[in-house]
């Protein structure tokens, strides 16, 4: 009986749903036919003289705008006409077709106007369809208009994608695009206040403002003072300032405000640099020549490699130490830990600001470290693992808050570890392989340790091989692991001391997914040479490998290591069939080098740096005398 009852209930529910769906379909099909035949229409939308009879009950049921209009004693609810004289009749027709049929055919010429109408009348499904269509057809030719739409109608996805194109093409758009002259004042102010504009000189922004004002000078001149408040005048060179003086001389209602400023004041008055005023370089900390006298006499250099020009430069010297680690946050470089030339270990943290042109020492770590992990995530610096004296491995980590300028401990690592590859991906820190003695003897790890920053928790997954002293960079929603020492292992999850002679330097590279597991569907060509301990950094969409070593362990008759060091520079771009060797090599060393700190960072371009080298007079504001 119970089974019969369940069967009856199931059939009853199925029949009810079928009747409900059939009734829904019948009702809307009937309304569509009534609209087509203009029967029982009780309201009319009027747009630029064209009349569109329709049913107020349908409009009110779907749309909160019309619901409020027809359920209150407004004129429209009394005389049965809704005036939309500012809307094109074709848009009203398309909107009503969507009401009655839930179908819309979007074309580029209509989609923007329909997006505005859907936003105005809060037709959310139609608004989503229009937004998706506009995103699919976004280009550098229409990005200004779509930026304005996204900004005015609070569409974050459309605004962000359009902003990316406006940032990248601002110079051309502001100088040549006629739609730039149609921007409203608030949108223009929002654009010229962006740090992310790809302009190498602030004169580009200044000229853009004047071009917009002069297009309709009578009505736009009152906005000039507000607009120029967003132009970073202290970043103009002397030659550019003369152009400003010439323009202002022609307008008696404008007044210049000058001030003698130093580095700090210039940066403060300008509110920072634009993205295009930087160039991204690869910085290598503590490059030195391994040939010649003892290490303590060496000159430790901070080298700066520009991959675009394939040239090396120098940053100011830091302390003489090796096996230090570095990371960049914005245009600041941070260096921590390392070994001094007297074999003592360092707990210091230093910051280098290119605009200040010098190193400053920040609060020190609680533990001295070398060959450790040093990563940046969410405006925090993480110093993890490493060692503090000969074969004394560390299982601790600590975090430096860049705002608070203070260190705090993080959760203890699952095992003591040094010489691992490390990278940051989506709020998690990844430590790949490494060297440890957590079972009482030396061995290379086959684990990927994952630190979840927000939860302060560690997890791990296993690799197929032991490895250490690889390099790693995060890119394309995963982590590329480059080179290192490897040894294959059997597939069981226990750790034991390996035979050191089986560890070999490798040309191997592989890709880890966000879960920390090897993704074999991603193909990376093998390195041109066996390489470990190299500096590995991401520059734009390329991976660069600098220097490195190949040590043959206990391979000769005397029982000593054979070592080979490299000063070569290679790069690979995902999708390319092989690695490319650069013409330039590591500077300051003819023999080669491994184990140095390496990271990509933003450096101000030379004209900008020249402005910050000395105290000078700068233009800090242009004021409207009648404001």
TrEMBL record:
| Protein origin, superkingdom | Eukaryota
Write down the SMART domains for this protein, in alphabetical order: BACK, BTB, Kelch
Q: Gene3D superfamilies, from UniProt?
A: 1.25.40.420, Kelch-type beta propeller, Potassium Channel Kv1.1, Chain A
Signal sequence span per UniProt?
Answer: 1-18
Q: Which residues form the BTB domain?
A: 41-108
The coiled-coil regions, if any, are none
Pfam families from the xrefs? BACK, BTB, Kelch_KLHDC2_KLHL20_DRC7
Which key words are in the record? Kelch repeat, Repeat, Signal
Cite the PROSITE patterns for this sequence. Answer: BTB
Q: What is this protein called?
A: Kelch-like protein 41
